[in-house]
Amino acid sequence: MTQTERRHDRLAVRLSLIIGRLLAGETLNVTKLAIEFGVSVRTLRRDFRERLMYLDLEYRQGLCRLRTGANGTQGELEVLTFAHRTGLADAFPGFDRRLVSALLASDDAPCLVWQLPHGMSPSGSLVFYRLVSAITSRQRVTLLAEGQRCGSLAPYRLISLAGSWYLAGEVRGHIKVHPLTDIHAVTVLNTTFTPRKTISQLTSQPDFIRALPHFSVIREALLLTSPNGGSTDSAA
Q1: CB–CB of 10/16 below 8 Å?
Q2: pTM, rounded to two decimals
Q3: CA angle, corner 161, sides to 159 and 164, nearest 5?
């Protein structure tokens, strides 16, 4: 892991802990918090000012807490967090706490994001949940997809495109894509993995996402034109 990646990991952990304490109703002493995390007070103030700007925070005499006067603050934060982590925030112009508050206060449905129904079976729902759990805990999985076994796959991301879900992962440095409808069983393994930054970035690129339905055809074409004469990966 590079120094930059380690710094980003420390930042992610710090922000997660801060958000968790704020949601629990704690009032945070910025000076003590800086000592605890081994950073400067200036760095923490930047965290609150720039990285946690969507929170309704109150500052007083070196202390920071969530405002208690506004109703539904925690619910708004949970909606904001969910929307940003799933990419749904991009569907709404100017998606912020004010908009979330207005939507939550409405008894009707002022906005509607229409999607094709997935019609997922109970077993498919279990597969989806296990994959989400494996991705968040960075655990490898074994898949049974279209009658074939794919072992020790590192799952990176589940992506929804045009009403269909796709799993993007990696086995021994090779990118794997499986339509969720092809996956019949998932076994979460005890082995963990460290995501490769290049693959993680690639799986979030618009061009990659648009190509998901055609990934197997593209991969087959690349194998046929490779110097190895079309040899396949045994782990597929």
Answers
A1: no
A2: 0.60
A3: 90
